[in-house]
Design a protein that fits this description.
A: 547 residues; alpha+beta; 11-stranded mixed β-sheet; B: 306 residues; MetI-like fold
Amino acid sequence: MAHQTSGPRRLGLLALSLAATAMLAACGNGSDDRPEPVTKDDLVDVLPRAKGGVDVVKWNLPAEPDTLDPANTVTYASGTVVRSLCDTLLTRDPDLALKPNLASYEVVSPTEIVYTIRDDVKFWDGTPLTAEDVAWSLNRMRSSDFVLSFAFINVKSIDVTGPDQVTVSFSEPDELFLNSGPALGVMEKKYSEEHADAIGTPDGGLMCSGPFELESWSPGSSIKLSRNPDYWNAERKPFAETVAFSFVGDATALTQALNAGEIDGAYEIPASAVPALSKSSVGRITFGRSMQGLNLNVARPDGPMSDNDVRQALQRGIDRGALADVIYNGAAEPTYTYVTPTTWPEGQKDAYQKAYDAFVAERKYDVEAAKKLVAKSGYDGETIVLALTAGDDTESRSAQLIQEQAAAIGLTVKLKPLQPLVYDQAGYDAAKRKELGLDLMLSSNFNGAPDPLEPMGFTSLPGQPYNYTDFDDAEATALLTEARQTFDDDQRAEMVIKAQQIIEEDSAVIPLLSTYTTTFLNDRLTGAITSFAYWSMPAMAFIGAAK
Amino acid sequence: MTTVLGACGTIVASSFVIFVALSNAPGDPVAGLLGAKSTDAARAAKRAELGLDDPLLVRYWHWLTDALHGDFGTSVVFRQDVAGLIGPRLETTLLLVALASVLMLAAGISLGVAGGVSRRWRSLVSAAVGLGISVPAFVAAGFLTSVFAVSLGWFPTFGAGVGLLDRIHHLALPAVALSIGYGAYIAQLTSAAVHEESGKEHVETSRGRGISERRILRAHILTNAALPVMTASGLAIAGLVTGAVVVEEAFAIDGIGSLLVKSISSKDYSVVLAVSLVIVTVFVVMTTIIDIAQAFLDPRQRGAVR
C-alpha cells in the first residue's frame, strides 16, 4: 500500500504545477510590442473619443446592484448603471468640474438655489420633463428611508416656483448641497407613483430620461440597457446600441473573462488582478484620478490610541509607498492628509498644495523618528486592535503590512477581521466599537464630490457619524460651519485649510493611500471616462468603436 | 407515511435551527440597507418596518405560517418575492448538479469497476482517485477555465447561458470542476466494493465451476457491490448541491449557491431560509430515496421502510 499513498500525492503536486504552468501560459500570451504597464505618471481621465457605433458593450460590475432607485444609488455598481439611465440635475466633466445638466442653477441667496429646468428633455415614454417631476424626485429623496437623504439635512423646502423653475430653500446655507447635484437622479413622477413599491427593482423598473433605457434586469445574471433614440444631449448620445452588465465579483474569473474577450471592460478592477491584466493581449488597463482613499480611523476616544504621540508615531511609521507598490500594484499613491489631493477643488489647488507639502514632510516614513515618538508616549505595550472587513484580500494584505510595520516601531497590533455587516454596524455604532474593543479601523472610502467639506464634516464635527474620537474643537467647528455657508471658493478654501491644520494635528484619522480608478477596456473599444468622474456621468454613453 | 412525516419534521426542525442561528449571528441587516450615513431614527424605523424588534419565536411563527401558505416572504435586499428570486436560479443549479451527477457517476463507477476487477488498472485508478480528491473544486475551476476557456476558447468563462444547449455549453466546465471530488470518492468506493465482492467465497466457487468471468461480474459482483455504491451516490448527489456554492462563485454562475453566499453576508433572512430549506429538502429526499431503494435491493431490509 505504501507506494500507492505516495503516488497520488506526487500526482497531486504534478497536477498543481501543470495548472500553474497552464495559467502562466494563459496569462503570458501578451507579445513584446504591448505597451509597458501603466504607472501613476500616466494618469488618464478619459480615453480618445470613440470613432463610431457598436452593437454591444459588455461591461462588468463589481457586484450586482441591490437597487436601481436613484435615491439609493451609493455603490460603485448601482452608480455605474443608474447614471447611464437617469439624468441628474447637474453633472461633472471628466476633470470633475461641476456642470449644468437637466438644470442650470443660480445661487440667488445663501439660503436659496434656483434650478432652471431644460425644456427639451423627454422621458423614455415620450412625456416631457417638467419642474414638477424634478421637485417630486428631490422631495422623495429627502425621506430618511433613502440613503441619499444625508445630502438634504439643511434643506427646508423644495418647491416649483415657475413653469421651468424649482427653488430649494435651506434652513442654513449649504454649499455642499450644490455639489451633491451630480448624484441626484430625476424620475418621472407619474410612473414612479404608479410603481411606488417596486421602483428600481427587477419588477418595477424605472422611468427616466437618460441616454439609455432599462431593457431588462435578470436578477443574478445581467442588466441590459438599450440606446434612447431621442436623447436630448448631443454630447452624450450613446455609441452602443445595447449595454449588457455582468456581475463577476471574483478577481480570477473576471481576469479570465476579460482576457477571453467575453467581457469588454470594467471599472474598479481589483488590485490583485492588475499584474495579469496589464500584460493582456486583448485590452489595456488605465489608472485614473479618483476620490477614493484608504485610511486608518482611530475607533474610540479612549484606549492606547488616545495618546497623540502614538498616533503621530503611526503617521511616521507606515511605509505608504510600499503599501502602494507591493499591495496595490501601483494602483494607488501615498496620501498624507485625510482629504486626498484629488478632492481639492480645481481652482484652489495651489493653496491646498502648500498646506499639504508641510504634512508630507512632517509625516515622511522614518522608523527612527517613529520609535522615538513611541518611547516618548505613554504606550506600555498594550495590544492595539485593528478591525478590517473580512474577505477582502487587498485590505487583509494591507492590514498585515501595517501590523508588521507597527511592530517595527514597537507597537503591538492585533488584526480583527469582521464580517461586512458587523463592520458596517461598527462604522456607525460607538457601543459596538467598544464592545468589540476596536482601537483602529482600516477603511476604504470615496467621496462623491471634489469638496473637502464632505469627508471632513463626517469625521471632525461633534456628533457626526464618523467622529469616533469625540473630536470637538470650537475653532475647527466654527471654520467648517462657516465654510459650508460660504459660496466664494477662495474664501472657503482658506477656512477649510485652517480647519484641516487643527484637525490633522489631532490625527484621529491616519491617511494611507489615495487609490486610483482602475479601468480595463478591450482594444476594440475606446472613449471611456477613466477618472472617478465616471461615477457621476452616464459613463456607458461614451464607449464606442476604436476604429 | 412515517417516512414522509419524518422528512417533514426534519425540514421544519432545520428551518427553526437556521432561523435561530441566523438571528443570533452578529451583524445588523439594517446596516447594509441604509448605509453608514443614515440616522439612528431612520434605522429604528426600518427595523420596526421589517419586524426585527419582535421576539424570536413570534418572528419564526410568522415566517412558518406564511411559508406553509407558500409565501416565503420578500427579500429585504432585492425587495423582491423570494420565490421569484429563487426559481430561475434553482433551475440553473439543478441543471448544473444533474450534469455533474452524470459525469460523477459515469466516470466514478466505470473507473471503480475497472480498478476493482483488474490488477493492472488498480494502481492507475487509485492514482486518479488521489488526484481527484486532492484538487479542490476552485483550483480545478481556475485550471479548467484557463486551459479550455481562455487558451483554447472552447467554452465560455462565466455565466449560465440562455436556452438549454447554450446552458449546457456554459455549465460543462463547472460541472467537471464540481464532479471531480465526489467522482473520485465514488470511484474509490466502487473499486473497494468490487474488489471485496470478487474475493468472496461464492465468487471463487463460481470460478471453480467454470462460469465465465463476464457472467460472474454481472450476476454476483456488480449486483452485490451496487448497494454501497448506490447509497454513496445518493449522498454524493446531495453533496453536489452544497458543493455548487463554491463552483458557482468561481464561474460567476447565478445559481442558488451564489445567492446563498450573498444573502448570508447581507443577513437577508427570508432568502437564506428558503435556500437552506431547498438544500435540506434535497438531502432529505435523497436519503429517503436511498432507504426505499435499499429495501428493494436487499431482501433483509424489506419491511423496514413502511
